[in-house]
């Protein structure tokens, strides 16, 4: 029996390692190739090692608008993140009570997750054309990306409020707190860790979204669209250097959110501890 358990353990470990290689292998390969020398190409074997292609990223580009597209993606991701947080909280609060049409509205919101992304992009683009509105990254692309991020934020808030203990709110109201004070001092601090998760979903899903932005960004590309365009006319490892930098940036964003969540949890634990000492 112990031998069988040992064999199954090694098999599962091997499968897991293969899965990790399949998952992160392309990213690691791109990172390695981005450190080639000036004569490097897009495939192995490597021709020297240097930071040449990273320096080339910050030089004037003959093709593309890398840093302009990065700024647009960053601004769009922040817009989508903030809007997703606000609407998710409002939706979560609204769905705490049943109201006429709540079930239909819920399924309408969630349906955007199963509609092919390219169809959403096409539909939003056609709608803006029919209405005579300009198609650009901060209006049409913004709306198209919300159809992707908002359902995730709402699902998180639904789960949070379904297990939320309302006795805290009732105690605050018994002490004379108005609805805004109850939300600000009771509800918001308790759901703050979940809001960090919603923010992370909103930012990361928007930052690398391609399909829903393809037909809604207009003439100014976001970073995923710019990288896709570069694959057709850039034949140097500079595109690998860009991919490495954007990957590092994504991990930095995720790490920042995690650190912020840990700091918030420690602060809340300290407040609870101080409150308990005060009662004693």
UniProtKB/TrEMBL annotation:
Keywords: Cell membrane, Membrane, Transmembrane, Transmembrane helix, Transport. GO terms for cellular component: plasma membrane. Its main location: membrane. It is a multi-pass membrane protein. Residues 70-263 form the ABC transmembrane type-1 domain. This is ABC transporter permease. InterPro entries: Bact_Polyamine_Transport, MetI-like, MetI-like_sf. SUPFAM superfamilies: MetI-like. The chain crosses the membrane at residues 7-35, 74-95, 104-128, 140-161, 182-205, 238-264. Pfam families: BPD_transp_1. PANTHER family: PUTRESCINE TRANSPORT SYSTEM PERMEASE PROTEIN POTI. The lineage of its organism: Bacteria, Pseudomonadati, Pseudomonadota, Alphaproteobacteria, Rhodobacterales. It is found in: Cell membrane. GO terms for biological process: transmembrane transport. Belongs to the binding-protein-dependent transport system permease family. CysTW subfamily.
């Amino acid at each position: 029996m112990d031998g069988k358990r040992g064999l199954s353990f090694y098999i599962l470990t091997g499968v897991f390692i293969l899965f990790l290689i399949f998952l992160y292998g392309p990213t690691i390969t791109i990172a390695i190739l981005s450190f080639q020398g000036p004569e490097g190409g897009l495939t192995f074997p490597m021709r020297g090692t240097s930071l040449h292609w990273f320096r080339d990223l910050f030089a004037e580009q003959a093709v593309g608008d890398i840093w302009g597209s990065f700024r647009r993606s960053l601004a769009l991701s922040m817009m989508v993140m903030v809007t997703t947080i606000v609407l998710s909280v409002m939706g979560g609060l609204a769905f705490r009570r049943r109201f006429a049409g709540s079930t239909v509205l819920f399924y309408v919101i969630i349906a955007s997750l199963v509609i092919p992304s390219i169809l959403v992009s096409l539909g939003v683009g056609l709608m803006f054309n029919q209405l005579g509105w300009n198609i650009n990254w901060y209006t049409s692309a913004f709306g198209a990306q919300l159809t992707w991020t908002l359902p995730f934020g709402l699902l998180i808030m639904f789960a949070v409020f379904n297990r939320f203990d309302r006795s805290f709110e009732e105690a605050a109201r018994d002490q004379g707190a108005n609805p805004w004070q109850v939300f600000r001092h009771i509800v918001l601090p308790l759901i703050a860790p979940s809001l960090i998760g919603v923010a992370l979903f909103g930012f990361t899903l928007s930052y690398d979204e391609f399909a829903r932005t393809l037909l809604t960004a207009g003439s100014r590309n976001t970073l995923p669209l710019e990288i896709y365009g570069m694959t057709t006319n850039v034949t140097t490892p500079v595109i690998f250097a860009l991919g490495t930098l954007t990957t590092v940036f994504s991990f930095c964003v995720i790490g920042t959110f995690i650190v912020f969540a840990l700091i918030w949890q420690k602060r809340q634990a300290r407040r609870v501890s101080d409150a308990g000492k005060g009662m004693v």
